Structure formats: structure tokens, C-alpha cells
Amino acid sequence: MGRLRRLLAAAVLAVSLAAAGGASAAPLVAIDPGHGGDDSGAVGTLPPGTATGLPQRIDADGITRIYEKDVTLDIAQRLEAFLRARGYPTVMTRTKDLAGGDVPFTTVTADLSARTDIANNAHARIFVSIHENSLSATASGTETYRFYYAGAGSKTLALLVHQQVLAALGLPDRGLKTAGFYVLRHTTMPAILVEGAFLSNPSEALILADPAVRQRVAEAIGTGVARYTDGGYDAQYGPSTTRVARYQVNAGAFRRLADARARARLVHRRGFEASVRSQYSARFHRNLFYVVGGRFVQLANARALRDRMRGRRIPANVGPVPARSRALPV
Amino acid sequence: MSTSRTTRRRLTRPIAALVTVAAACALAGCGSSDGGAPAASTVTTATTATATAPTTRPATTTTAPAASADTRTVTVYFADADAQRLVPETRAVLRTGSPLRAALVALAAGPTGARSMPALPVGTTIVGTNVAGGEALVNLSGEFTRGYPSGGAAAEFAVLAPLVYTATGTPGVTRVRFTVDGLTPQPAGSQYDWSGTFSRADFPGVGG
User: Fold this and answer.
1) Tag placement on chain B: N or C end, fewer CB within 10 Å?
2) Do B23 and B64 form a contact (C-beta atoms < 8 A)?
3) Contact A181, A32 (CB under 8 A)
4) Of A145, A301, A304, the CB nearest to B153
């Protein structure tokens, strides 16, 4: 009898520890409020005087507008509060009316790469990008995206979140979709992008103008995330179910940032995209400023860019995408 | 091609085909009478069709294609009104010249279907095209970036998916890279990585 009691007590303790461990080990969730700064995102129209709880946006013609960047940041902040209250650590890709990394908007590539850098470098296990849609005054509904090469983790996460957002908004279901969006392609964890409603549709813009609706959307996304983790999918699929870029085309590496920027401008002038990233060089045992022409999932595509750059007399080679790097403004 | 031979051939050609090609050429600014447009693998820099607003969509593009010895049929794609699927349309274009460029010029001219959406931002022209190794390089005018949707996956789909499907509908083209005035585009509000190529895999299951 004494032995049975000891076994029972040990079992109870094990369950308690597991629960405590589970709570403290809640996965890090990266929250990405779409657009920001000079990139307003989609723009909707509201009846004059509509109270939104967002920054007031009245254009030069006196028309009341609603900006996607304001809606996404508001929902993201509400989602952050929802998740933190439930023990989830979170990381935001922006916290202000700025581009990714809370820096002024320069280019869309710099903006989006800053967002994925934040999530990847923080080793987030879940990435949720929040957006609103736009097309026409009659377009309507909710859709959720994952990267088309993403694994089962992203697919499951997309499904669970999509179901919740659909229920929260009650709008037509435009479906679960796949796309090559930058933030889905370049993140190293299950990642989704939610397009809640259409700002181009005046009635849906009005819905999103309501703070209570935005709270519902945030809670819906949070509930979907919680169902993903509570359902054991995070443990099952882990952080690396997305096919990520592994090959990077480098157009030079420099000790001085000014030299790297000069090379990046040269690369631009010759018709290529280029960013400057600070990353560790194993050869020189120090951080260097790399001029990066692009990142690729497939080696053949990286080599193709390298060859095209060399064809324009730009020294280029293909290297691995480093585990950590930081994008710098050119 | 001599003038007399051309005249004889034109006498036997269906009138509809003449109307179609003439209209397409007028739109494209490409209808040189000597058929001297560049070959498919060369960069074309001639004046091209300009994307037009829906209200100014030219009625001539509604002419049904009628391929003849001097024409070929190309398929162009437009998003449906809900930006959920692509709707193919065919055009008869001159056999001479780049089929890629001809298809994109037709794309810029806009759809004929009442439920289809124009693909390219108003004023966009096809500055140049090049095909090498299965990859098409399409150089667009600055209006593309300036008129690009400021946000919304559906709005981006309505622009980008037709471009990609139309370009990759050209024989030998499997992926396409875009430039604007020779540089990698940076359309604010886009969610895509423009430094790489696009393929139909970017828009799976959209029909067409």
C-alpha cells in the first residue's frame, strides 16, 4: 500500500512538472503587422467621423480613410496581449508606424527582410503575418496563406487560424491558399499570412474600423495559435518545416560599410537588386558587410543570378545563407 | 516579302483576321509593314502597347482570333472579378516578332471578358523582353511600379498572376523575371520577392 502511494505521488508530481514545463516552454510567436511607415498598405474609405480608435486619416479631399498599416498594427498589438496573457513569449516585427524593425521605410525588400530576420534570429517557432485585403468595392472575404513549399506545420497552423478568423468575422471563405510571399518564403518556422477582410469594400472597411471587431480578430488568431500548440503540432512539426532559402549570392564582402554600400549602388546601377547585410565571416573570423544579390531555395537559381551578375562584370559567388545576419539600409 | 505577294495573300485572307491584326498592331505600335520586328531571343525596345483604364478599353480587342499564315495565336490571362482565378483569352498576333512581347502587349491592351480585370497598371508599357534558358526577362515601364496596388493579396494577384501566366504561356518559357526601367522593381506594398523569378507555381490552382 505504501509503495502504491509513493508511485501515485510520483505520477502526480510528473504530471505537474510536465504541465509547468509546458507552460514555461510555450513557443515563441513572431507577430508581423503588415506594411508600415511610408507603406500604407491598402487604403479604405469610411463615412465621415467614423470612430476607429486608430490614427485619424483624412486625405487632401477631406475623405476619411482607413489604412491597412494601422489596422494590422492594432490587431497585432491586441494579439500580442492575448498571447502573453496565456504565457506565450512573443516578438513583434514592428511596434510603431514604421517599416519592419521599426526603421523608416526604404524599399519593400529591406522592409520584408527585416521582418524575417527578426523572426529567424529570435528562433520563433510560429510566424503570423497580419494583413487586410484589397481589390474592389464588392470583393469580400477572408483568406489565409502559407508558402507553397511549406510543410505540414504551416498547413495545420493556417487551417486552425483560418477557421477561427472566419468564425470571428463571419465573412465569405476565400480559402486556404499558397503563395510565394517574402515573409512566408524566408522564414524558418511554420508561417502564415492572414488577409482578414477587404478594405476596398466599404462595408468591410467599416467592420475593421470597429475596435471590438479587431479585438475579435486578434483573439481568433490567438486561439488558432493556441490550438496549434495545445494540439501538439508545434512539438510534432518543430520550427523548420518550411523550405527556406539556403543559397545566397554575394557580390562582395567588405570591412567598411561605406565600401559595401558603394558596391551595392554599383550593383543597382547594373540592373540588380542588392542589399547590405552584416554577417560573420568564418574566413576572416569577424563580421563583414556583405553585398547580397539574392537568396534562393534552389542552388540552380542562385547560380543563374551569379552568372548574370558576372555577365555584367559584377564579381559574384554563391555561399550559404548564414544562421544570423542583419540587413542594413543601403 | 514583296508587295505583290503580300497583296495576293491578303486577298485570300479572312477580313476578320485583317481587322484583328491591324487592331492589335495599332494597339501595340508594333505593326511594321516590313515585318521587321526582332526575333524572340532578342531584346525589343520599340514602343509598346499601353495599359489602359477599363473605361477606355478598346473595342477592337474583342475581335475573335483568326490565325492565318501571317498570324499566330497567343493566350493571355486576366484575373476574374473576384481575383480568385485566371481567365484565358486568345489573340491573333503577327507571326513575325517575339511571341512573348506580342502576348504581353496584348495583355497590356486589356481583357475582352466583361468579368475580367485589366492586369497592368494604367500606362504600363512593355519596354523590352528577352528569353534565355527558359527564363524570360520582362522590362516594364515605370508606370508599373507607380500604379502597383498599395496592398492586398487579391490586388497583387490580379496584376502579377496574369503577367506570369501570360509570359510562361510562351513556348520555352518556364519562369519570368521582371524589371522596371531595367532595375529590380520595388513596388511599395508588395509582399513578393522581386529579386527572383516567378513561375506558375507561385499561383497554384488558379485555372486558366
Assistant:
1) N
2) no
3) no
4) A145
| Residue B155 to residue A296, Cβ atoms within 8 A | no
**What pLDDT does residue B67 have?**
59
C-alpha span between B174 and A198 (Å, rounded): 32
Residues of B in contact with A291 (CB under 8 A): none
Mutate to test the interface with A, among B117, B146, B174, B195 (most CBs of A within 10 A): B195
Contact A296 B204 (CB under 8 A): no
Residue in chain A lying closest to B182 (CA): A271
Higher-confidence residue of A132 and B15: namely: A132
- For the segment(s) A247-328, the CATH number from 3.30.70.1070, 3.40.50.300, 2.60.120.340, 3.90.1150.10 is 3.30.70.1070
Residues A101-144: tens digit of each pLDDT: 999 999 999 999 999 999 999 999 999 999 999 999 999 999 99
**pLDDT for residue B35:** 27
Does B12 reach chain A within 8 Å, measured CB to CB? Answer: no
d(CA A14, CA A21): 10
pLDDT grade, residue B201 (50/70/90)? Answer: confident
Residue percentage of chain A with pLDDT more than 70: 91
Q: Tell me which residues of chain A, numbers 64 to 123, contact chain B at a CB-CB cutoff of 8 Å.
A: 68, 105, 107-109, 112
Fold of A27-237: Aminopeptidase (3.40.630)
- Sign of dihedral through CA atoms B162, B164, B165, B169? positive
* Contact criterion met (CB < 8 Å) for A145 and B152: no
Q: Directed axis angle between helix A211-230 and helix A152-169, to 10°? A: 150
State whether residue B152 sits within 8 Å of chain A by CB.
yes
A297 versus A166: the higher-pLDDT residue is: A166
Q: Give yes or no for residue B24 having a pLDDT over 60.
A: no
Domain ranges of chain A: 27-237, 247-328
pLDDT in tens, A286-311: 889 999 998 887 777 888 889 999 99
